Amino acid sequence: MGVRPGDDFGRRPDGRRAAEAIAEGVRGVPPGEVPERLCVIAVRLLPVTGASASLRGGDGLPVRLCASGGRASYLAEIQATLGDGPCVRAAATGAPVLAPDLRPGADADRWPVFAQQATAVGVYAVHALPLGSGTVCVGTLDLYRDTPGGLTEPELDTARLVAGAMTVSLMALPRGREYDERGGPDSWPDGPADGHDEVHQGVGMIMAQLGVGADEALARLRASAFARGRTAHAVARDLLARRERFDRDR
Predict the structure, then answer these.
(1) Reported CATH class of domain 189-240
(2) Which of 128, 134, 217, 238 could make a disulfide contact with 86, Cβ separation 3.0–4.6 Å?
(3) What are 187-213's pLDDT values in tens digits?
(4) CATH number, domain 15-172
(5) For 148-163, what is the HEC assignment?
(6) Displacement of CA 238 from its chain's centroid (Å)
């Protein structure tokens, strides 16, 4: 039997209970649905209100894979659009990034724009854990709280169990491309890769329209998306559909 709304595993399970809850929650679930189910399980097991998983693009742009709900999905997309936030940092370093208080202070100073966006939708703490092995980070598991606060050591251990299960589930996904040794763009399952490719192609169109390099084109795409309250993926799709164009004076 899988995880259903209202299931209560308790907020501080020991390692064995957490592992049993994870195994029970994904039993019989089709492989393509397991990552999203694990996000839901993370919310059941931990003192968080949302969870998302993102894959690491070779250009540093996270690719949202799944989320437990709309707010978590939005925050994953915001980090991709900004190219900044705990998720981006955890993917770059391959180490957990814990931001227990996004109100004005040390954590907000690290990511001021992301912190403003997160608190505006009622998220006051974000904890990002890398997915992959000790040498290759393929993405992150991101946990969101609607109140400031960190994770205790037992809770952090549980979060690591979920991240480990997420990594295993990613390796089991059917994919048209094999993982490369860096965990770069060629490692994504086909669905998320499509979104990443749209951004890549959109960047190429901006380069052609403005005569700029890839880094500036990506920065222009992100800035345009953020200024209009949109995601980088949405703007890229409009570029590819010829509904959007970047002029030199933009």
Answers:
(1) mainly alpha
(2) 128
(3) 444 444 445 566 666 666 777 777 776
(4) 3.30.450.40
(5) CCCCCHHHHHHHHHHH
(6) 22
